[in-house]
Design goal:
Elements (H helix, E strand, L loop, with lengths): L6 H13 L9 H14 L6 E4 L6 H10 L7 H8 L4 E7 L7 E10 L7 H4 L6 H10 L2 E9 L13 H12 L5 E4 L1 E2 L5 H8 L6 H6 L9 H20 L10 H8 L3 E6 L6 H7 L3 E5 L5 H11 L6 H6 L15
Parallel strand pairs: 4-5
Antiparallel strand pairs: 1-2, 2-3, 3-4, 6-8, 7-8
């Protein structure tokens, strides 16, 4: 089937449908395992082709960027045009067997300094292309703010490690003044972790979690500041596995760590949109891609489960005294 015209696309579609039935029909797990094993070979990184996506890309590809954006929803054509402006970059990974169908979209902002919050990156400008060109020329940092997997039928299939390294090399070749390559990433499962521990009666941080029940707590400066340190410590422990098995690590973290990134910084209220608050109390993370250490970091994580961290993150995971002065009623 794979050798027939359109056969690979048909098999990917079969697995997409299959994934909707596996939970109810356990016997189908064997078929799913076979397909996943085959796809891991067919969609190896060596077969993927990287293309830059700009405003001049075919309309069909731009429409797919709309449809597949999974991290920060695109708010219309003006928003899309902003994401493809001169101080932005967008790349797509494609496979010859699926012509015109992206596997992964990577969106990048060219900025000065390490971005700590996503709302400024998503803000619309006045459409001044000359100003955008100037921002790109003065940028020293590339921020990967959205990485979207596009094919449901390839869910859980590894495209190989060091994918982001290829994008980094592309950016370095075009913009040699860039000295830092980092993500600004969500921590999608973080909120579930402490709340699950609380429900099981295993949370030493119950006072912190109780304070988070208050509506709009992140908009109250005093309450937010009181919660900042204990929540940043909780998140650092969650991401490094200091308080849990490596197997439960956040999937976004696993992707970047396996691609050779370093856990660089945990950012307080990096995403104050509703989704960000619901997933991670607004916390976002920078994963740093240093071209000199990408492969060594990848090996450390792949073979030993080691999460390479910056000194700032290491300081957060030092055991801390129980938080004082936090209460659900603000007292």
């Amino acid at each position: 089937m794979n050798m027939s015209p359109g056969g690979t696309a048909a098999l990917v579609a079969v697995r997409k449908e299959l994934l909707g039935h596996v939970s109810r029909e356990p016997a189908l797990k064997l078929l799913d395992a076979d397909l996943k094993h085959l796809f891991a070979s067919w969609f190896n990184r060596g077969f993927l082709v990287l293309h830059r996506i700009d405003w001049g890309a075919p309309a069909a590809v731009l429409e797919k960027l709309f449809a597949y954006e999974a991290v920060h929803e695109i708010q219309g054509w003006d928003d899309l045009r902003r994401r493809l402006a001169p101080d932005r970059r967008c790349f797509g990974f494609f496979h010859p067997a699926l012509p015109g169908e992206p596997l992964i979209f990577v969106e990048v902002a060219l900025v000065e300094g390490l971005a700590a919050a996503v709302q400024p990156l998503l803000a619309r400008d006045n459409g001044d292309e000359q100003a955008a060109h100037q921002r790109a020329a003065s940028a020293d940092t590339a921020i990967f703010y959205s990485i979207s997997n596009c094919q449901d039928g390839l869910r859980g299939v590894s495209f190989g490690n060091l994918l982001i390294k290829q994008v980094v090399e592309e950016l370095r070749a075009e913009l040699p003044q860039l000295t830092r390559f980092s993500t600004l990433s969500p921590v999608r499962r973080f909120r579930r972790w402490p709340e699950k521990r609380l429900a099981a009666g295993e949370a030493p941080d119950a006072a912190v979690l109780a304070a988070l029940k208050t509506e709009g707590w992140w908009q109250d400066a005093a309450r937010s500041e009181a919660l900042r340190d204990p929540l940043l410590r909780l998140c650092a422990n969650y991401l490094t596995g200091a308080e849990g098995p490596k197997g439960s690590i956040d999937p976004v973290a696993r992707f970047h760590l396996s691609n050779g990134a370093r856990l660089e910084r945990v950012n307080w209220l990096g995403n104050v949109a509703q989704r960000g608050i619901e997933e991670s109390y607004g916390i976002m993370v920078n994963y740093l891609y240093d071209p000199k250490t990408i492969e060594a970091n990848h090996e450390a994580f792949a073979h030993d489960g080691m999460v390479v961290c910056s000194p700032k993150v290491n300081a957060l995971i030092v055991p801390a005294a129980p938080p004082v002065g936090i209460a659900a009623d603000g007292a």
